[in-house]
Amino acid sequence: MNKNNSLKEWLYWIKSNHPKHMDLSLERVRSVGGKLGVLVSDSVVVTVAGTNGKGSTVSGLEAVYLDNGLKVGAFTSPYLFNFNEQIRVNGKEISDSYIVEAFDLIKKQLNEDLTLTIFEFTALAAFYIFKKLNLDVWILEVGLGGRFDAVNAIDTDLAIITSIGIDHTEWLGNTREEIGFEKAGVFRLGVPIVCGDPNPPESILNAAKELRAPLYLQNKDFTSRTKGDAFSFVSKGLELDDLPMPNILLQNVSTVLMALEINKSKLSFSVQKLKNSLQKITLKGRMQIAQGDVTKIYDVSHNPASVSILANYLQNNPSKGKTFAVFSMLQDKDISSCLNLVKNFVDDWYISELKVERHAKLKNISNALQKIGVQNINVYPTVKQAYKAVNNLTNTGDRVVVFGSFSTISEVLL
User: Which pTM does this prediction carry?
Assistant: First the structure.
């Protein structure tokens, strides 16, 4: 493999060379990243960890900093449609040529005894690209957990914890305390932390205390309150009123605003521009609502914490007609709990298996629905076919909810 190979060829080679999807460790990234000289940054680094809300928080910071003329790099995962979505510079997906150049340099540091996962390759590529382009700020989203995630090979200037929920239990633990401990691995000695979870586990608080890191807590050190179609934000150093309601959860917006305040000596921003910036925050597939004769809701929610947000929306915004759900999920998720949260707000279910590794078997999804008393179950070979079938049945006033996985949404929206 070399720079003349296409990105598609590179991705195939990487996955074949290190077939493990999950292989949590910092040793490989530190070894290769150290040789490349990409693990030390002159830019401001913001690390975002958490169970849900990471993508929203990254997008919020990115929007504000771009509106203030800063050069911004954002690394996120997973992607919906295009691999390049994961590495953005100044709000735009990076080109294939940049990624292939980075992959080629990374490969030259490997040997027979040292291989990297696709996520590790991508993270190192992002570090290389961001450093080469001499950006003002790197916003790095943790892929899984925190302590052993590739992103944690970089020391941060501000750590953000968005939320702590039960997910990825095979790797992170079965309780919020255990999961919080793993996510607190991104903390650094004396480096400030913003915690957007209004009820953080003790493991988060203890880790911050041990590292003597200033900790800013949602609803204690900062808070947001709705006022009609607007909201206000209050912290010890910042008070903002009459802000427009954004397209993402207020909890995450509040976290963004607190992070902006903490970093303002390094990354200045205009309060006057905030209203415009907040209205720009959008994420494909995250409570993405398309209004029309038939309302379409696309949501990547894939664990009980995120599905509960979807359930609350469905409950508080009842449909005039029927609600159809197009659903599929990965096998390692808490399928039963997720389905149970929304069962009372869905009339008919259309289910299928995903075309990815770790997909939940159709029989398991069907059984989970039957066990919670759901009867109107329709089975299709693919998510796309299930979605097409639903669209042929809907009438004015109905709504269609597609959820369960990034892969579920990407199949439909593609």
Answer: 0.91
